[in-house]
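User: Could you go from structure to sequence for me? I need the amino acid at each position, not a summary. Structure tokens:
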């Protein structure tokens, strides 16, 4: 994917509209800058290349005229009938904070729209039941990679008609993978809300003790294998006192490693879980289980599980793949007090393939049958667009979140954090899980066969051929049920 500059601050027409409307309502909102953290996890606008001054002046003049009229139109709309939107989302602290920080500002800007917050009770099953029964909320939070499956079964309203007539938000406001994950059959069904990705954490102290250069983390799988081997250390009883690397620990599993090996889960409309490079990735993972003894690794993992902290922070793991969110442990978990030197870098890749990552995150969608679709769109584009994303990103405890919008990440200066910058720099080229009705099936199947391969209960090629057969069957079943 194209790596676009993140250095230019671009004012979209929708942003001008925001400030014009805010002034008309005598509101005071903080529009730029920020202290810490980004948006919500599995939580970013790809800035365009700098334009000439003349072009920028022309664009801004046109935008001023257009959006002054748009603000007047909004004022007329807000004076209309009062509408209450049902909003289905997480409970607890998120509900309290999101209501106070984001929803309250939306209601100030849209006095004719009130938000009724419905805490998630029963997860996706309950939400599915509400949609099937014709009583869905107007807006709901949804794991972004599920958008394709929900759209395919007719559980979501397409947002494409609104997107095509609204200049306030668009694809180029978000990272490519983040935006694409909310689309199905070339139509938008889910607005991105936050993102995250994966890198490799490395213990400089253990590297130094093993005779390795602590300032040179591995960049290839072969380098990782060689370095990890030097760090494995056994106890007197034959177990492991420390390990170099475990390719299924933390956020390291088949999906993660497949892209490091150049694997592709789709080719056109075909699902390809048995891609030769994905097979190679699983063979590599199974090789670790055999070489270092799965039973001994399991015992080590059991010990790590009893510590109550991420294994990397114990100081007993040389290299570990995990997400940007574990940086929050340094402040939020009193048990995390690393006494060793450490760093974070992009994950190593197979020789001949670029270092990469995969991004996940959440989204906001409009369930099928929403009673107030026009107002729901206004709410969606606020909470998942520039205005709401910036408000949420600037909250005091945002920590090491990455927002889905590069412009917001730039404004709140999260790249000033060197560890977080590693993850931020990988976002423009991040991969995402396939958007397909069989997405959940393929996700579940990969873990099933990964477990079998690691425990010597099947050859990777045959296991992944089986996954291919199963997901193709699931896809046909889902398509026939439409």
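Assistant: Here is the amino acid at each position, in order:
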């Amino acid at each position: 994917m194209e790596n676009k500059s993140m250095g230019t601050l671009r004012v979209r027409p929708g942003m001008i509209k925001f400030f014009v409307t805010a002034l008309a309502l005598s509101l005071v909102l903080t529009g730029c800058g920020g202290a810490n953290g980004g948006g919500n996890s599995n939580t970013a606008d790809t800035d365009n290349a700098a334009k000439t001054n003349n072009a920028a002046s022309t664009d801004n003049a046109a935008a001023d005229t257009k959006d002054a009229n748009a603000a007047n139109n909004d004022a007329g709309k807000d004076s209309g009938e009062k509408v209450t939107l049902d909003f289905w989302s997480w409970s607890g602290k998120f509900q309290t904070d999101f209501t106070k920080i984001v929803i309250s500002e939306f209601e100030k800007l849209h006095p004719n729209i009130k938000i009724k917050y419905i805490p998630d009770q029963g997860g996706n099953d309950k939400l599915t039941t509400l949609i099937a029964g014709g009583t869905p909320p107007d807006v709901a939070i949804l794991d972004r990679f599920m958008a394709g499956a929900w759209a395919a079964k007719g559980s979501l309203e397409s947002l494409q008609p609104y997107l095509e007539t609204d200049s306030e938000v668009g694809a180029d406001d978000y990272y490519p993978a983040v935006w694409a994950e909310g689309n199905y059959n070339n139509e938008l069904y889910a607005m991105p809300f936050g993102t995250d990705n994966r890198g490799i954490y490395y213990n400089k102290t253990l590297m130094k003790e093993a005779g390795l250069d602590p300032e040179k983390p591995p960049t290839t799988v072969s380098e990782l294998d060689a370095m990890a081997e030097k760090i494995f250390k056994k106890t007197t009883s034959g177990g492991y006192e420390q390990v170099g690397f475990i390719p299924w620990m933390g956020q390291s599993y088949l999906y993660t490693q497949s892209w490091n090996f150049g694997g592709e889960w789709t080719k056109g409309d075909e699902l390809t879980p048995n891609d030769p490079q994905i097979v190679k990735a699983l063979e590599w993972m199974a090789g670790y289980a055999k070489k270092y003894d799965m039973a001994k690794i399991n015992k080590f993992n059991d010990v790590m599980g009893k510590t109550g902290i991420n294994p990397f922070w114990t100081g007993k793991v040389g290299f570990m793949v995990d997400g940007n969110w574990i940086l929050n442990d340094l402040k939020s978990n009193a048990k995390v007090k690393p006494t060793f030197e450490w760093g974070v870098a992009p994950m190593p890749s197979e020789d001949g393939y670029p270092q990469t990552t995969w991004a996940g995150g959440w989204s906001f969608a409009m369930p099928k049958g929403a009673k107030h679709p026009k107002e729901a769109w206004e709410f969606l584009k606020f909470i998942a667009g520039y205005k709401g994303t910036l408000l949420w990103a600037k909250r005091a405890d945002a920590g090491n979140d990455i927002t889905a919008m590069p412009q917001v990440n730039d404004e709140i200066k999260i790249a000033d954090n060197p560890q977080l910058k590693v993850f931020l720099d990988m976002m423009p080229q991040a991969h995402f899980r396939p958007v397909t009705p069989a997405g959940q099936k393929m996700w579940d199947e990969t873990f099933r066969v990964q477990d079998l391969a690691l425990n010597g209960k099947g050859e990777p090629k045959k296991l992944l051929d089986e996954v291919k057969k199963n997901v193709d069957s699931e896809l046909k079943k889902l398509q026939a049920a439409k």
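One structural detail worth keeping in mind: Residues 1-79 have pLDDT under 50 and may be disordered.
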